[in-house]
């Protein structure tokens, strides 16, 4: 069907009381408390909520009124910023998965080393330090990517839609807030903070003392904590994979809308 662009106005956007808009706002509300809680369980809940959030965004983008408005404004800067931000968020999600996978591999190598070598020996100390160095580098790389994404999401230019009516303003703000919450969720994707700290404490103890009669107990404790952390990493990675697939789907829907 031919769409006459001159007759498309922002007041044709879905109402702020549209069920899809209300569902998105509810998911955003639930995500507000995420940034202060970084246990594995909280991260998994947040990732699932974020995936649901983008599912509702798909529903919003599929509404004919939204499609018409996006076609009308598709050449504006804020549309490009949204698309760029979605790519950055997918990249960050992928980077987080890669970092978690490498962290898991380092822990498995370290567990193997603990089973074979004498605690306090140079080989074990070297492997533990290598693990800490990797952790530090991975955290630095992820923080750099996250900083870039934050600049994009916080620096999105205002859309002319915001000056036309409240319904249009709500739709734009909802889309921008969704991207911001995606950024916030990624801040916690380095695993269960409490478990990471406990593993660090156990490894630091092994690295900083000579062989003693309580080595077996300390090694056992370190291995147990690493197994627990490994389980958390696997669950978070699964959540990230589901989110990544949903991000791709949402981007495809968005691109299809502005290409009509």
TrEMBL record:
GO biological process, one term: root development
InterPro entries: BPS1_pln
Protein name (record): Uncharacterized protein
């Amino acid at each position: 069907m031919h769409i006459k662009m001159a007759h498309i106005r922002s007041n044709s956007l879905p109402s702020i009381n549209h069920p899809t808009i209300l569902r998105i706002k509810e998911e955003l509300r639930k995500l507000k408390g995420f940034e202060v809680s970084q246990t594995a369980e909280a991260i998994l809940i947040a990732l699932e909520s974020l995936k649901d959030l983008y599912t509702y965004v798909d529903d919003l983008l599929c509404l004919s009124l939204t499609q018409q408005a996006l076609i009308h404004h598709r050449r504006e800067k804020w549309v490009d910023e949204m698309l760029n931000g979605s790519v950055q968020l997918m990249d960050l999600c992928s980077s987080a998965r890669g970092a978690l996978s490498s962290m898991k591999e380092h822990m498995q190598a370290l567990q193997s080393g603990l089973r074979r070598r004498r605690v306090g020996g140079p080989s074990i100390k070297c492997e533990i330090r290598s693990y800490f160095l990797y952790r530090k580098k991975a955290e630095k790389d992820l923080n750099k990517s996250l900083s870039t994404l934050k600049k994009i999401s916080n620096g999105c230019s205002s859309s002319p839609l915001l000056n036309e009516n409240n319904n249009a303003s709500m739709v734009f703000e909802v889309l921008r807030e969704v991207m911001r919450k995606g950024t916030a969720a990624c801040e916690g994707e380095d695993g269960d903070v409490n478990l990471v700290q406990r593993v660090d404490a156990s490894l630091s103890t092994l690295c900083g003392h000579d062989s003693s009669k309580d080595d077996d107990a300390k090694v056992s404790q370190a291995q147990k904590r690493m197994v627990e952390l490994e389980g958390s990493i696997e669950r978070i990675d699964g959540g990230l994979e589901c989110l990544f697939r949903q991000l791709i789907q949402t981007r495809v829907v968005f691109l299809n809308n502005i290409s009509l």
